[in-house]
Structures
1.
Amino acid sequence: MNKVLRSVRDGVGFDILLIGAALLFLVAFAGVPLIYNVLMSFQKVDMFNLGAFVRPLVGFANYASVVAQPEFWLVARNTLLFVVGSIGGQFVLGFALALFFARGFPGAATIRGLFLVSWVMPGLVVGAIWSWILAGDFGVLNHLLKSVGTIQSNIFWKSDPSFSIWAVIIANIWLGLAFNMLLLSVGLHGIPRELYEAARVDGANTWQRFWFITLPMMRSTIGAVLSLGLIATLQQFDLFPAITEGGPANSSMVSQYWAWQASFKLYDFAKGATISVMMLVLVLLASVIYVRSTRHEVRG
Amino acid sequence: MSARGWTNWALLALALALAAVYLFPLYWMYVTALKTGTEIFANPPTFWPQAPVVDAFPMVWETRTMATYLSNSVLIAAGVTAITVTLGSGCAYVLARYRNGWIDVGLFVVLMLQVLPASVMVTPLFVAFSQIGLLSYPRTAVILAAAAKAMPFFVVLVRATFMTVPRELEEAAMVDGASRAGAFFRIVLPLARNGILVCAILTFMSAFGEYIYSKSIIQTPALQPASVGLSTFIGPNAKDWSGIMAYAAIYVTPILAIFVLLQRRIVSGLTSGALK
């Protein structure tokens, strides 16, 4: 016993205690729930047996019933659109801004830092502000678009089924843009200047320097940014209750909000768990790419 | 002035214009909160309030019981930060100090847990909490759930800080007779203090805005945080824009103030951890 105490104070026991406490906590409140979630997706769970520890197993019945839902393919399409649209917008705009701020004029770093304010804002507040900007009759975005002549009449971003998912995508692009820009800036900063000078001596133009130096040198950063973008987009939840609540008629429903609605509006916890597990497969795919593209850096 | 000087000024002006466009939503929140009820729905909208009024702020503070909501938010954020910093710092230190197969497994677990969406975790957490009776203490339940969500990211960032602490200092202290624990608490922790502090503030800020766990787990309005309070009057059918924007402004102004004060440190803390 004395030996154990000694080890905790002055040996490898100290390290095991430090890391063990954290990992135990994470296993209890993240690892176990994760496995429990998979288990529930094969069970019948309703309000009556919610407290029971043993519930009837139903095989793949939950999965079959989720796929058989009339809105399933609409939700899948919306989720794909939300992911591709958000990541595309965040990445292209973020990369453009990162390249712009990489020109290193006075004040560049400070102004770039200001953009990160979106990152610390509560998602629900961002959703509320965009909900007001995108309002159909009195929204400022419609006014601006009309005054520059892009549109003739008001777009009802939130209540028109063909625009509702785009309303959330626009807000999500704003939210994630700064983080994309910051990470890409770090990547740009790591490219040796001599490469550009050598290319200039050889007569490469701006486009060629971007295509043959910047992009190849940024490959691992871009991989990390895109996979982080995928993870963050699938984690994005707060914007949906704030802007559209998935409506109208599920036209802006995505998997993460659908799963939550199944559990906490319909109290069909098995269905919520099942949708979550299907989503997890996508998330795990993204994280494998992320871990692969950052692995050599993580090991340092 | 030289050609390069002019270019720099032009770039600076363009950068400021881009920042202004990007930060417009924040501006719009404050301006709307200051407008009168009729001016909000003016067509065309006014970009500067004609007759600024602050009535909306005390109104929304009273009618929406913001004092209760905000104190719950602070309580939850403080609990999440305390757990995350206490458990996360030690974990990050060990992950930074050693390099072997076990550490790689630990890192992999942390990275994987970082990607789990809260919307996936909320269903099993809710069911499990209701089974073990934790739902009777809803704020504690939210703190535990949100701390598990926040910790992996904290560990990744703080680990980068510990990597910058030279190992020789720790070894020197141990040669001088300090124990492992003594060297950690008296040498390593003080040197990593700033990095831990920045990450603790980031954790606090994100827990201050936490929504999904609180919305799902806390049913009693008197125990809900400000995010849930805001959710009661927004959504696709929102009408009271003056109240919503005033509420939002009261809610985020402290966060924005901290961000502006610590902007440099936050940005460098993020860049050192996120890609490494």
2.
Amino acid sequence: MNRSVDVLIIGGGPAGLAAALALKEAGVENLLIAEREETAGGILIQCIHNGFGLQRFKEELTGPEYAERFLELARGKNIEIEPNACAIDIIDHGATKLVPLLSAARGLMLVEARAVVLAMGCRERNRGNINIPGSRPAGVMTAGAAQKMINLHGYMPGKEVVILGSGDIGLIMARRMTWEGAHVKAVIEAQPHPGGLNRNIVQCLKDFHIPLHLSHTITRINGNHRVESVDVAPLDAGQEPRPADGFNLTCDCLLLSVGLIPENELSLKAGVKLDRVTGGPLVDSSLMTSVPGVFACGNVLHVHDLADWVSEEADHCGAAVAAFLRDGPPRGKTIPVRAGNLVRYALPATVEVGKPARISLRSIAPAEQVTLQAVADTGAVLYSKKLRVVYPSVMQRVELENIPEGVASVELSFVKEDSK
Amino acid sequence: MRTELICLNCPLGCEIAVEHDDKTIVSVSGNHCKRGAAYAEQEVFNPERTVTTTVRAEGGTLELLPVKTSRPVPKAMTFKVVAAASAVTAKAPLKRGDVLLSDVAGTGADLVATRGLEV
Amino acid sequence: MTDGKFDVLIVGAGVAGAAVARRLSRYRLDVAVLEKEVDVSFGVSKANSGIVHAGFHDVPETLKGKLCQTGNRMFSQLHEELDFPFERHGELMVAFDEDELRTLQTYHRRGLQNHVPFMEMLGPDRVLELEPNLNPDIVGALHAPTAGVVCPYEYCFALIGNAVKNGVKLFTSQKVTWIGRTDDGFRVETEAGLKFKTRFVVNAAGLHADEIAKLVGLTDFKIIPRKGEEYLLDRRVGSLVRKVLFPVPTPSSKGMLVIPTVDGPVMVGPTAENIDRRDDFSTTREGLKQVFAHAQRMVPAIRSSDAITSFVGLRPVATGDDFIIGPTKVPGFINVAGIQSPGLTASPAIAELVKDILLKEGLRLEENPAYDPRARDKFVKIRGLVEVRDFAALGQVVAADPDYGKLVCRCENVTEAEIRAAVRAGHHTLDGVKFATRAGTGRCQGGFCGSRVMRIIHEETGIPIEQISKKGPGSEITPIPLLKGGRR
């Protein structure tokens, strides 16, 4: 069975849904969301905690509530969502893209689209990626996988828990498992500062007196059939473990919250070029990838902290796709965006001269009393804002009203106050 | 005396310092907004938390229904709220926002569905 | 009371036991295979490197030397009959200096003595033409085109699957704990309480072969586990090499290799370290460093950051370092022990040898006219179709069975139909399904598909979710069911 659409959106999570709504708003009618789960909503469905929607809806919502709001809006606009449909390839046919969708209900659907929006989100970094030595017993899983088993199916992976990584997912699961009767013995974090939001340190760890060991790592997993314990060691200045100063923690469950990786295997099949730092596609200011007609937004582009910002980025992407369908790719002069002092990455990779630009970025390390700057190669300061503190785990956004003519590149940087 | 705390209201997580005695707040500093000041006062004397958990679901398309307290409840009572929730069975059909348990564990807050449960 | 009377009872369903079972299934015999783990190959064999060696490594006077090359030759027919993943692209032993070149010549001669065909010594230019990603500093290589790669557990599943179709009885989760001698054979009892009578016992018990031999009073060999760590690289790295790459070997092992596995991803390793414990399956920092240092020496593009998972195998090395295959002081008790490398390669020849031993020991071998060398439960795997973008063929597969339209493992492209088939074939653990379908072996390492596979196992077998395990009792994935009173 074949279909022809103007836009195919791969993924019906917060990014895909918002992009679809923006497209409808811009007058694009023939669009389809391919959603691999039974229900759309993406990862939000299992994020039963609150903290979503403060910006988007001016209310504090849980993940499912945020998702349902979008699903209702989508239903209201008659946005077509094909459930249980998994895209297995993207073939670039120039003016159109061919995307085979594997679906039980429809068989193999070949969708031909004038534009494709990549909204596949991300996957979790796992034990194999970080090579924790030791055996491979049951009871070791990523925090998100545990979240799914607990929140969607009602099964706990263990009762004596250690969590590696203090990112938000790990912190949230520390609280969740404690509330469901587990004893979370410790959270182990390799960096000297926590990975997740301050408020999660309070409401997920401090509230429950769960110790947080900063600058520590797990050097060995013990136990053959099931986890029995983990060896924990402090890290020295060169990030090398000092096992002699370490300790052993008995446990029957080890959760890993060690980072998210944008899920771009499909993008690679389409020939999309990826940014080595973000793991997501290199895009221009319309969020179009290196393959004309293929766009990206949300966690597949770069990992976000807030679903609200995912939706905003997707709004922008949807509008840009509509413009692309109407007028073709942006024709203005594009100039590179560079990551300067203390900047880990800045996105998009290029911006258009004579147009406004929104740049998202992250610092490479925590820093206090810095000025976030966008400076043109001409020396003109296009943006400057003093910040009390920046963390790698909190994304920054810079809105530029206009990239002036004559500018050949823009550099984003965090300038320390004392170095001025 | 002085209590230092982190505001939970929004992701900014301002570090707030509160000067107070046993019963009254003398001063609050470090907050970026009024909600932070209000939070700080509450947190020092009557800390509260919103509880999010799941309840068993029946007759619908889900095995479990996610729920939350309709407003924050005393921090000391969160485990009681979770225990009360574990005795609840949500029966389809239900809408997001429907009350599953009024005055859950005597906190004055309701336990409400955060997702619809379709038949 | 007996759970079965058999002519031959094989202890262990690894490559050796499985190959013997399949070989004997050609005859009118009652054969039983007892495997102590919950699934076939779950002992030593699942961690095998999966190489079908050419046969020039081992000394001709040893059983290893005699059987390796014979086994190698037999693989083509076995593959044709049983259709497990197997490819013959050859192997290269590379040299970095004149000394090593001379060593290569020693192996060349040894290969000739072992009747290994088509070997050739190659100069660096030719080698780099064959393998452009090799370190350009190499000075030459010994090329053996008859070497290949195989999926070790799929090979086991195929052997046992065919054996069972031809009448062999498989008993899993049956650890042999007692063997008593009778007038006409043996009584064998398992930990789970099953009791068997048999005329012959074939001891193919891998890491525990010495313990099984001890049950009948034989103590003339010990098994010393030799640990090997291996690391699998992300598919995204590409194939990097076409042939299995060997360095010049050490006294205790063939060395740390770069292996283009038959399923695609590059594998590096193994280490070789004698250990005391038979239950130490831990990878180590030092092991990782060693493996990648050696791998990078041969293929400089390899980086440890490309690893997506690792595993450990324990080679069951017997006293004397050779295979121990033969009758013993105890009539009817046949040892098939010490099956370390090149055990997998030699396995078809080992099976042949064991059949001959049994014949000599008095077992009557009458051909079974109903024997079908190809009979197997097989299922279509769509992975290959997705890889070559044959969507027409894929569409037909889905149209014929909509369960092929439900993608479960998106990293390796495995569908619900395949997983159901694997479960129906007897794989009730996550590892079992993983080995039979590849679901969970990809870049997300089961993060996405794990809960789905569990649901399918539950639906097909009725096993409660909280009892579904990674590799048998004690390794349950989510042992606490919150809705069944597991809540606080």
